[in-house]
Every structure is written in structure tokens, then in C-alpha cells.
Amino acid sequence: MANLDLSDFLILKEIYKTRSITASVKNVGLSQPAISIRLGNLRNYFSDPLFVKTPEGMMPTPLMQTLIAPIDQLLDLLGPNRGQLVPFTPESSLRRFHLGLSHVAQMVLLPPLLSILESSAPRIQVDSTDLNDQTALAMAQGEIDIAIGYAAELNTGFYQQRLFTEHYACIARKQHPRLANDSSLSTARLLKEEYLSLVAPGTGHSLLDKHLHAEGITRSIKTRVSSFLGLEQIIVATDLLAIVPARLANTLAQGGRIRAFEIPFPMPAYEVRQYWHERYHHDPANRWLRQIIFNTFIDLPPVESAVEDTGTQINRN
Predict the structure, then answer these.
(1) Considering the domain 6-78 in this protein, what is its CATH number?
(2) DSSP code string of 104-128
(3) pTM, two decimal places
(4) Topology of 167-261 in CATH?
(5) Residue range 239-290, pLDDT digits in tens
(6) Of 101, 151, 196, 219, whose CB is crowded by the most CB atoms within 10 A?
(7) Fold agreement (6-78, 96-165+271-297)
(8) Are 176 and 189 in contact (CB under 8 A)?
(9) HTH lysR-type domain: from which residue to which, for each copy (predicted)?
(10) Which sequence spans correspond to the domains of the chain?
(11) Which run of H or of E encompasses 57?
């Protein structure tokens, strides 16, 4: 194999993106056997396997990891568009976007976002994955287009944009035996109760535990979970309390089974942002979605005070 051509680089890019020879057929325009033969030639050319079969698919070798960014640049410059970015047409696009979302964002922000996308870009698809300590790597590798939440580790090589400020609230089931008749939550009562706590590395929730520790406040943690997705069911079925972002507390309280209380001592606020990798800063599709997210969530108003007898929003007393 004396020379490479653009189709060879397209094969490598598509296998890298899809983690599959079979899945790469659609965009490469060759049959699966033909792609396999070309991949074998490329392995000989680079004296490296380039991709290795794993339970998660065809995973790139370290050499392939170093090649993908230059391959992207080469295809952008020399491909059919001659270095011109392809315009994005949301009305007809079949693009699949991959979002990295905190648990709270999946429960509170994703529903309204999907509703907007359904009307403005009805044929696009959206995949959501949890924010974690591998989010930065996934974004650098093109596996996540945009992340939303609080992600302190997304610094070098990433852009970020503030959306809104969030704070914390405390929730309990509406018929909690020690809180059912209370309109507010005292510090003494808060410290006597048992709690459900979220363990989620790489998210803003780690700020909560750091702040409580710094203030010398120790909660009795009875249960730890890695996701808030079953939070309402657990709180309703037990006498546990949980400290959660205020917008999530408000969302859960609207169902009528949960009460939300203002925390009776100062708690830090934090900024919810959207993040994207510098490789996709000028990508038209990524730019379009970032603008939709910004327009939808910029400066969301604080959670409003509840009417005292409804118990459906955060009680401020």
C-alpha cells in the first residue's frame, strides 16, 4: 500500500465515530468486506492495529487516538466541501446529538429542550449520558457534543457559557411524621433527620458535601445512590430527607407527594453552564444546538416562593 487517499481517512474516522465496521458502511459508501480489507491495509501501513475489538465495540489504539484530530482537519480541508463548513438545516437534518447531562438536567432541563427540538428540528435524534469523571475525554473524542451542568474539570480545550444560577433546597415526603405540620425546617430538625445522598463524581453535587464539611455540619446519611432518577419514589416511601438543587425540588413538589423546604442556613449557589470542545466550536450543527440551549435556559428566574398551604414549591419563611 504505497499511498493513502481520502477514502482511507474517511474509513478511519467513521470506525472511530461508530465503533463498528458495520455501522460505518452507511457513510463510507463501501461494503463491509471492502472496508475490512481497507482497514487491514491501513493496519499494515501504520504497523498498528488502529482498532481493537472489545465488548464496547472497535476501540481505538493510542496511535489512532493521536491520528483522529489530523484526520478531521484533513477531511475538512480536502473533502467534498473544500474546507467549507456544511450548512446545518435543522428542519430536515437527521443528525443524532449526544448530550452529557447531570441527573438534574435530565429530569428538569431535558423535557423542555426536547419539546422545542420536536417542533424546530423534528427529525433529529438526541442521546443523553450522565456527566462523570470521563466526560472531558468523551467530549474530546467527539462522543459528547455538549455537556450541561456544573463540570469544574472542563477547562483547557473547552468553551463554556453560563446559563443560570442554582441553589439547594431540602425535600421530604408530604406526610413525613415529624415535618407534616411544619411550614419551615429548622437547623436542629434538619440535623436530627436521616438522609439520602447522591454520590456523583464529576458533577456540581460534590460542592454540597464540601460546603457542609467546611461549615462543620454533619448529616446522618442512611442511603447513598448514584442517580437521582428514582429519588421521588425513595423519598415518598421512607422518612429520609434529601438536599437537592432547588429546581429539582420544585419539579418533584409539583407532583403533590413531596414538600420542599428552604435550607435554614447559608448555602452556596453555583452556575449551571453548557460546555463544548474546541474541535466543534465552529461546527454549524453544534453552534445551532448551543444557541437553542442558550435561548431556552439563559437566566432562568429563581424558584418562586410557594403559597403556604399548597406545599408544591419551596417554602421560604
Answers:
(1) 1.10.10.10
(2) HHHHHTHHHHHHHHHHHSTT-EEEE
(3) 0.68
(4) D-Maltodextrin-Binding Protein; domain 2 (3.40.190)
(5) 999 999 999 999 999 999 999 999 988 888 888 999 999 888 888 899 999 9
(6) 151
(7) no
(8) no
(9) 4-61
(10) 6-78, 96-165+271-297, 167-261
(11) strand 57-60
